[in-house]
Specification:
403 residues, mainly beta, five-stranded mixed sheet, 3 helices, globular
Length: 403
């Protein structure tokens, strides 16, 4: 376990949709219609059916900095012992807003968002269960949205925009069948990751929309590749650049990242070839027995930009100590056992040269992925066994040759 984060004990987490393993197929229902009564989902499917793949692909190279290392620091601990600030379950999504406050929501958090300050002090709860304005059925993703945040509800199939003080602004229906995330550029354009139907199957695609919800462009989806029991290889995770001119979309089971420009409503595909992240070939079923017989396949957690120069990329990779016959016990594995299956690979890309300049393998599953500005998070337990969210800072450290 990494010395920088090894003082806390990782806690329970079902290997569910957070890891992309054993997720229930949530794409078996049709979406209704596009916002503003645009074309129905079936029409979107027909339009996307023959969409060509990306015409521009750039390769991410390696040019390591010999004196650079990556450090993971715990900057705050989120969660009260009881009351509204209690972390109510492991399947959570964590975001950091423009003021440095942390927002925690998820399937097991009573359909509300818990707001904590930068030091981990609970401030307030936002939202409640329901289908009305400012209400949620299931909070799938929380993302910075200009001066506020946007909350993606995958069961209600909509995105809810909140102001800087977390007041309801408006809701936007999802473009496709199941929304995954929505981010906003500095102008009037949005980028959405959502599912579309491809016959009896489904794939995830990227949609450019304006602030009124109208479809203004789309990025080519991969062909539907059913590589596991609960999803497909084209699922995306989104983040936006600090200046709002670009967005980053990572593919879950392939080391591929789309760099999307809001102004031109277009994306360039970035790919990386490394031995520790092979092209997926195995079915990643949800059972413990499957994982005890075959090492889990690498999964790209996400990419998030820091400043103008750097891009943090995080991946889950099979633990170096994995061996056949390893048993977790129980139907729902605990994350304190899960680290025996997973490590986290952290890489830092210099955007000027598109080279990885530093990397660090962490002997823990940091499933929170990267957050804008060089942050991350992980669910865990404190010394008393109470649930906590540990907010982490990713730091590039450069040492001189004589140190």
């Amino acid at each position: 376990m990494s010395p920088a984060i090894g003082w806390y004990r990782l806690a329970t987490l079902t290997l569910g949709c957070t890891l992309g393993v054993g997720c229930a197929d949530r794409d078996d229902q049709r979406g209704s219609v596009l916002a503003g009564r645009h074309a129905a989902v079936d029409s979107i499917d027909e339009t996307l059916a023959d969409t060509p793949s990306h015409t521009t692909t750039l390769l991410i190279g390696d040019r390591p900095c010999p004196s650079c290392t990556i450090r993971v620091d715990t900057v705050s601990v989120l969660g009260d012992d009881d009351g509204p600030g209690l972390i109510r379950g492991p399947q959570v999504t964590v975001s950091r807003d423009a003021t440095g406050q942390f927002l925690v929501g998820g399937a097991s958090s009573a359909a509300s968002i818990s707001v904590f300050d930068a030091n981990g002090r609970f401030l307030r709860s936002v939202g409640r269960a329901g289908g009305g304005p400012g209400e949620y059925r299931r909070i799938w993703r929380i993302a910075p949205f200009r001066s506020g945040v946007v909350v993606t509800d995958d069961q209600a199939r909509r995105h809810t925009m909140l102001s800087s003080d977390y007041q309801f602004v408006r809701s936007l229906p999802a473009t496709g069948g199941t929304p995954m995330s929505l981010v906003a550029g500095s102008g009037d354009r949005l980028l959405e990751a959502a599912s579309v139907r491809r016959g009896a199957d489904s794939a995830f695609a990227l949609f450019f929309r304006d602030t009124n919800g109208r479809l203004v462009g789309r990025a080519s989806p991969l062909r539907a590749q059913r590589t596991d029991a609960g999803g497909d290889a084209s699922r995306r995770a989104l983040s936006v650049s600090p200046d709002g001119t670009e967005a980053w979309a990572t593919h879950r089971l392939h080391y591929m990242i789309e760099r999307c420009a809001f102004r031109t409503a277009s994306c360039v595909l970035l790919a990386r070839t490394v031995a520790w992240f092979p092209v997926p070939t195995l079915l990643s079923e949800s059972s413990d027995e499957r994982m005890s017989e075959f090492p889990p396949e690498p999964q790209l957690l996400g990419a998030a930009q820091e400043g103008e120069q750097f891009l943090w990329i995080m991946s889950l990779v099979p633990d170096a100590n994995w061996k056949r016959g390893l048993q977790l016990g129980g139907v729902h594995p605990r994350i304190i056992d899960q680290h025996r299956y997973w490590d986290t690979m952290i890489e830092l890309v210099d955007l000027r040269s598109l080279n990885v300049i530093a990397s660090q393998r962490i002997d823990d599953a940091l499933v929170g992925g990267p957050l804008v500005g060089g942050y991350s998070s992980v669910y865990g337990e404190d010394a008393s066994g109470l649930p906590r969210i540990y907010a982490l800072r990713l730091v590039l450290r450069e040492t001189s040759g004589n140190q």
